[in-house]
Design goal:
It is built from no helices and 16 strands. The strands form four sheets. The protein has a four-stranded antiparallel β-sheet with strand order 1-2-3-4, with no helix packed on it. A hairpin with a 6-residue loop joins strand 1 and strand 2. The radius of gyration is 30 Å and the shape is elongated.
Length: about 210
């Protein structure tokens, strides 16, 4: 009986032809039947079962589905600043920064329009480059000035952007544009590869290599 999983053989128990291959013995409606598929008739096969079962108390746990507060068990793309004075990471799809060694995590942005991934510090530790994602509008590559909170969008079209890094002088960003499909939309996934773009927000992304 496959009802408890994903019913790859259907949700009925096994059935079998009689030796003459003229009738089928099958379960239905809580009973066993002798089915004649040619005459389209069915006859109940009576049966009785004498059995004893122990019915035990069900084991249950109180599991809050959506608590107001909970511990985050996975920090993604943890990145320590070159100066070693702070760390940045993505948790639950948003970026946090924390002073080292024992600071309090602070969220970097206040928006709720997209997720924030792949944070990376600049060489001087004053800015961060990261990617965004929204299921409807797709993603972008952005920089964030930590002192002013100013955000600059570097990409000129939506896409699936990964693993951005800044050049040592902070004037350029290099990132990967990937294809879509499977769980994500295939749109804007034709011109893929490794790109570079100026971080002032006025440049046009340039393809460096299609692979890498």
């Amino acid at each position: 009986d496959m009802q408890e999983i994903w019913a790859m053989h259907g949700v009925y128990p096994s059935f079998a032809w009689t030796p003459a291959s003229k009738q089928i013995v099958i379960w239905a409606k809580g009973k066993i039947w002798r089915l004649d598929p040619f005459a389209k008739t069915a006859t109940e096969i009576p049966f009785r079962v004498k059995d004893t079962r122990d019915v035990r108390q069900a084991l249950r746990f109180d599991t809050p589905v959506a608590p107001d507060n909970f511990d985050v068990h996975q920090l993604r793309w943890v990145n320590v600043s070159p100066q070693g004075d702070k760390v940045i990471y993505s948790a639950l799809g948003v970026l946090y920064v924390r002073a080292l060694p024992d600071g309090t995590p602070q969220r970097l942005t206040k928006q709720n329009e997209h997720f924030e991934f792949h944070p990376k510090f600049s060489r001087d530790g004053k800015s961060v480059v990261f990617t965004t994602w929204n299921d409807a509008t797709l993603g972008s590559v952005r920089t964030l000035d930590l002192a002013s909170g100013k955000e600059t969008i570097l990409t000129t079209s939506p896409g699936k952007y990964l693993e951005p890094v800044l050049s040592p002088d902070g004037k350029q960003a290099v990132y990967l544009k990937a294809r879509g499909g499977y769980l994500t939309t295939p749109w804007h996934g034709i011109e893929t590869g490794v790109f570079k773009v100026a971080t002032d927000g006025r440049g046009t992304p340039q393809l460096l290599t299609e692979d890498g």
